[in-house]
Amino acid sequence: MKFSRQNRTLKLRLQRCHSRLVEAIVKIAETVAQHPTNPFGRPPRAFLVGGLVRDLALGHYSGLDADMEVYGVQAEILEAMFRPLFPEATFSTVGKSFGILKISLEDGLSLDLALPRTESKEGDGHRGFRIIGDPNLDPETAARRRDFTINSISLDPLTGTLIDPLHGLFDLEEGILRVADKNTFGDDPLRVLRAVQLVGRFNLRVENDTFDIIQRMVTSPDFRTLSIERTTDEWKKLFTKALFPSRGLQFASDIGLTDFPVVMTTDICVQLAQKEKLSNEERLISMLALLLVSHTPEELSTLFQRYLFGSSVEQGVLGVLHGLRAVQVLQDNPNALRQFLRDLLPVRISTFFVTALANGTLSHARAHTWRKLIKEHNLQYQAENTLLRGQDLIDLGLPAGSQIGLWIVYIETLRDAGKISTREQALQIVTELIKVCPTPPPNTQNESTQEKY
After folding, report:
1. Quick one: which of 147, 150, 138 has its CA closest to 181?
2. Angle between helix 245-254 and 228-241 (nearest 10)
3. Partners of 101 in the β-ladder
4. In sequence order, what DSSP letters do the residues of 203-270 get, joined into one string?
5. pLDDT by residue (tens digit) across 114-133?
6. From the CA atom positions of the chain, what is the Rg in Å?
7. Does residue 398 sit in helix, strand or coil?
8. Which among 153, 247, 289, 428 would be 20 to 30 A from 313, CA to CA?
9. Distance CA 419, CA 443 (A)
10. pLDDT (tens digit, 9 = 90+) per residue, 348-401?
């Protein structure tokens, strides 16, 4: 992609972002520009920096947050300067010495404002940094603090002027991932995983020196000090934001990270997830299930302890993996499909389709048959709702208690076997049976049915 007329193009693209976010960005930039200039300091200016500028250069306009660097203004007065502009917003400050001011607007919009700052390594681990905000820092020095050149570009939202001392736009145009500063890049070990997800998200080629630096970082003691939360977040970005996750996985393997296998069909998974309109969590479930299909239960348990994907994601992955094993023996009829959908809950069938189609467990023709049966027989609703509710059974004279659940399981088992299909049939059977015994007769109950009810 060629970035002709860069200044004008990026300013126009900014106008296509969320209107409330653009309005807030411009207000902040105008307010800073009107601040009195310190004759011994830099002129007051507020520039957009980081991911939003990179994404604008790529033609992406969907972001709900933005980072801005404020020059020529002391950190102590930032909140007092901007609070009158956003009386309904929530303000919070992170870090005493460098003061990132977080402004949370409505509709999930947010802005992070900070002084340009320097970082120096003073201790072990990823927390051993001394960070100092300096409103008079020059933009090139501030740019070198960032991780990669593609994230070091600044944009003046008022004039559209680009500040790109490290030639990040060139690297973005050529699809190159290059460190911003070879001497300081290794100070933050999380940048290893950030490289992995950026390679997958933007189909980047890692520059040779950058590859060598990152490969050495993988074996450093500091890399092992990263928190589970931080490492999980970077993997999530690869699995939920990348267009080419296989590229990121291959790069991870090349530098010695082997927690997740290189599976080329993850790229197909992305396309299918977009077609099925999966949420980020659903896409994460589909992607992880695709990657972990060959893992043993013990290996799955170990991996889920190493990362914090969340219980709903973990259970979703296990549900999809169970479904993949069941496909081979599943009959394509309404009763069998309803039971399959119920066992899959709370995962939606579309999430399962993405994984099953991507790895070839399910053919497109068979998926079409399933979709048709599910729609014609309203199977998703049936899977989510039992024929009888507890109150129905109490109305028949059964006492509240554990027997109610057993009766519901019994009725659902009959429905799965195709012996009944309507609420009226279920009520008639229970009415006749309770004349003889208040407990349901023994049956070959499916374990998954018992667990659901």
Report:
1. 147
2. 140
3. 93, 113
4. TPEEPHHHHHHHHHHHTSGGGGG--HHHHHHHHHHHHHH-S-HHHHHHHHHHTT--SS---TTHHHHH
5. 888 776 655 555 555 667 77
6. 28
7. coil
8. 247
9. 13
10. 999 999 999 999 999 999 999 999 999 999 999 999 999 999 999 999 988 888
- Predicted confidence at residue 450, as pLDDT, reads 52
Contacts of 223 (CB under 8 A, 6+ apart): 189, 192, 217
Task: Give all strands (DSSP E) within 272-325, no chain letters.
Answer: none
Terminal Cα distance for the chain, rounded: 55
Backbone torsion region of residue 134, taken as left when φ is above 0, otherwise alpha when ψ lies between -120 and 50, otherwise beta: beta
Tallying the residues shown for the chain, one arrives at 453
Condensed to tens digits (0 to 9), the pLDDT of residues 419-437 reads 998 999 999 999 999 988 8
pTM for the structure as a whole: 0.86
345: which DSSP letter? T
Query: Counting Cβ atoms within 10 Å, is residue 328 exposed (0-12), middle (13-18) or buried (19+)?
Result: exposed
Q: Quick one: pLDDT band at residue 448, thresholds 50, 70, 90?
A: low
Token pair in block for residue 103: 């402004």
Report the pLDDT averaged over residues 61-76. 87
- Confidence category of residue 4, pLDDT binned at 50, 70, 90: very low
User: What is the pLDDT confidence band of residue 452, given thresholds at 50, 70 and 90?
Assistant: low
Let me know: does 93 contact 99? Beta carbons within 8 Å.
Answer: yes
From residue 452, give the alpha-carbon distance in Å to each of 115, 327, 423: 54, 20, 19
The amino acid sitting at 197 is Q
In this structure, are residues 362 and 353 in contact, taking their beta carbons and an 8 Å threshold? yes
Dmax (CA) of the chain: 96
